[in-house]
Amino acid sequence: MDGYSLAILFVVTGLVLSLNPMTLSVFSALLAGALGKNHHKNVIHVIGLAFLLAYSSFLILFSILLIRLLSIISIDLTASLGIAIAVASIIFGLVNIKDYFWYKPKIKIPNNMDAAIHHRTIKKNNPISATMLGMITGFGSIITTGIALLCLAIILTLVQQASPTLIIVPTLCLVLPLIIIFVATLSGTKLSAIIKWKQDSKPLMQLGTGIVYIILGWILLLVLNGSINSIL
Amino acid sequence: MKHIVKRNGSTEVYDTKKLYASIYASCLSVHESATVAELAAQKITDDVNSWLAKKTEVTADDIRKTAGKYLSEFNPHAGYLYLHHHIMW
User: How far is B1 from chain A (nearest CA, A)?
Assistant: First the structure.
């Protein structure tokens, strides 16, 4: 696996996982709150950028932390961890694909969390609150992106001549749809259209997530058994 | 004085101003002008108040859905946003 194919894997993973309904919803609600409060355009810019900066910083720090942790532990332990993560990734992927085709459990955000998000997006709509919300959203998105980032971090650790800085690529891709939504909204696109697109595309997003997780788990297993140029 | 049942089971006095403000904000969020937003907020609030006068007990969700329905008739984009912006998944 050369640097080029690794980069493609990282970009595709980042782009597919960036279409996360929860993150898109929170950011849309934040923008709805900012526009609804009739803030000056400059204030809306600061609120949006504060969220994006906090969200991306959290994910970048999380990814760097993963790479640092993996560099500290032994290669044998990384390989053992890799097997567990690859299996978890494939199971997570299969569950997502199963939910797309057969059964879809209704995900219910707890009332207190829902109220906290509403408070930070609509009621207390300011740059400080947006920064905190960005970090909280980053933390919350780890539920869906955490295993994938760990898979990628292990692949980077085990593949020969792979640069650890590549881990920043998927985290930057994770922010891309939010930047597009931000620019589109400021350019006059109605938030209702964005929310409708998100609602209509949720099943496809889930399918995409499932496929990416299975591919990641499979590639990690190939790295672990030596089929891909690993250092093992 | 009307009381509404909130999602957590507690009750709260119905506040027309809160409803007005939420509809006004929804209209601004879909790039409507302040004048149109005021007009929509006043009309929808009046409609909801008329609907509410016939009810004995309502939940906050009933009010949200009814206001959303009236707002969708006035402005489909604002109505959709009003009804769906809180859906976090």
Answer: 25
What is the enclosing helix (H) or strand (E) of A69? helix A41-72
Task: For an interface test with A, give the residue of B26, B29, B72, B77 to mutate (most A CBs within 10 A).
Answer: B29
Residues in A 116-135 with any Cβ partner in B closer than 8 A: 117-118, 122
Domain spans, chain B? 3-84
Q: Where are the alpha helices (DSSP H) in chain B?
A: 16-29, 34-53, 60-74, 76-84
Write down the pTM of the prediction. 0.88
Q: What is the mean pLDDT of residues A153-181?
A: 90
Q: Which residues of chain B have pLDDT under 50?
A: none
- Distance (Å, rounded) from C-alpha B53 to C-alpha B48? 9
**Tokens coding A8:** 């493609």
Interchain CB contact of A187 with B (< 8 Å) = no
ipTM, two decimals, is: 0.80
Backbone angles phi, psi at A64, to 5 degrees: -65, -40
pLDDT digits (tens, 9 = 90+) for A21-34: 989 999 999 999 99
pLDDT at res. A108 = 66
Average pLDDT of chain A?
90
Crossing angle for the helix pair A127-158 and A168-186, to the nearest 10 degrees: 150
Q: Would you call A64 exposed, middle or buried from its count of C-beta atoms within 10 A (0-12, 13-18, 19+)? A: middle
What average pLDDT score do residues A154-177 get?
89
